[in-house]
Design brief:
Blueprint: H1 2-8, H2 12-16, E1 23-24, E2 29-32, E3 35-39, E4 42-46, E5 54-57, H3 60-76, H4 97-109, H5 120-131, H6 136-143, H7 148-155, H8 162-189
Antiparallel strand pairs: 1-2, 2-5, 3-4
Helix pairs in contact: 1-5, 6-7
Length: 190
């Protein structure tokens, strides 16, 4: 679950609401169709936060981790089916969302990694996407924000150097374009 959360930017409830039928391993895709949430003492399924389903591309290592998890789940519960939840307790029942947060907190405290909150997995994923050159609209789509302005408001601090990068790319484009124009002009004169 931690790998999936860290490499998809899913919200906690969206990850807990995943069913095996939401995964298309051969296409490296994951569909976000529902969320498992807790309100008071009740845990139930609902639509994702933006009320819209979305599809997320997966990188190969996460696909392999999920495939291995699927095989492990089949070994524990051979009678499994596509409607089963991806992340469950040992009996195959949905996991209570607050329990996952407590488990994460315990793992972080017991490890040498910096102290982060559960939701920081999502923020880190979004920040890494932007730092690696992803467009703000692709990050918005991936995270399921209702509007690109929400994404900009949350992650504009990650983009300060993006203007410099854009100008450097433009400069390189013009240099290459100018060189090709010079070659073209030169060939016409000859």
């Amino acid at each position: 679950m931690w790998r999936t959360l860290g490499f998809t930017g899913l919200r906690r409830g969206e990850a807990l609401g995943l069913q095996w039928r939401d995964l298309r391993f051969q296409d490296r895709l994951l569909a976000v169709r529902r969320a498992l949430i807790t309100a008071g003492t009740s845990t139930y399924l609902t639509a994702p936060k933006s009320s819209q389903s979305r599809v997320i591309d997966l990188e190969e290592e996460t696909v392999e981790v999920l495939k291995a998890h699927r095989e492990e789940s089949k070994n524990l519960r051979p009678e499994s089916n596509p409607d089963d939840f991806v992340f469950t307790d040992r009996n195959g029942a949905p996991v209570v969302p607050n329990l996952i947060t407590r488990q994460f907190r315990g793992l972080v405290c017991a490890s040498p990694v910096p102290r982060i909150r559960f939701h920081d997995l999502r923020h880190t994923h979004a920040s890494h996407l932007l730092e690696s050159g992803a467009s703000i609209s692709s990050v918005q789509e991936r995270l399921g924000h209702s509007d690109v302005v929400v994404t900009l408001n949350l992650y504009s601090h990650v983009l300060p150097g993006s203007q410099r990068l854009a100008v450097d790319r433009l400069e390189s484009f013009y240099d290459n374009w100018g060189s090709s124009m010079d070659r073209e002009s030169s060939s016409r004169l000859n």
